[in-house]
TrEMBL record:
Belongs to the Cu-Zn superoxide dismutase family. Residues 92-121 are annotated as: Disordered. Residues 51-184 form the Superoxide dismutase copper/zinc binding domain. It catalyses: 2 superoxide + 2 H(+) = H2O2 + O2. CDD domains: Cu-Zn_Superoxide_Dismutase. Pfam families: Sod_Cu. The lineage of its organism: Bacteria, Pseudomonadati, Pseudomonadota, Betaproteobacteria, Burkholderiales. Binds 1 zinc ion per subunit. Destroys radicals which are normally produced within the cells and which are toxic to biological systems. It comes from Pseudoduganella buxea. Residues 1-32 form the signal peptide. This is Superoxide dismutase [Cu-Zn].
Amino acid sequence: MFQQHPQELTMQRTTRLALALAALGFSAMAHAQITVPIHSVASSDGNRSLGSVTITETPGGLQFTPALQGLPPGQRGFHVHMNASCGEGPVNGKPAPAGAAGGHLDPHGTNAHKGPNQGGHMGDLPALEVDSSGAALKPVVAPQLKKLADVKGRSLMIHAGGDNYADAPAPLGGGGARIACGVIGEPAAK
């Protein structure tokens, strides 16, 4: 009868354990995600598709990875808004494109636009950078948002202007008009 040496058994067990740990590590890296289709909300554009933003759970917070084309170049205000709608609705008492999305996600009632790292609106995201060709491809991370459940059933908004993460000299960072929007739905099945 053949007998394995104790060192060989230990090596086999170590190899099996390493393979099992690698498999666990790989599955932990397969983070949950949602892909959000983004459309223009300007009436002149007729709800034109601009691409999508994929939202992924990461250890540092939700990562928003845009794959967008056709936006005005420069920095754009980028936020999660309260409601799952990109329809027309009131903004400051007047009908506006994507006004039905409501205000920035603020479940704790801070009423403060302080940016993604400062404890204000949870929906305050780092600004979206749009290159000279109108493409936005650079991911941003929102450390206040940890789980897809934090944003599911909300909307993702892109504004005409940049964002200074303050309420002065203009409210809500000076982002201005809503130019693109997408409803955040269910996580993709893995």
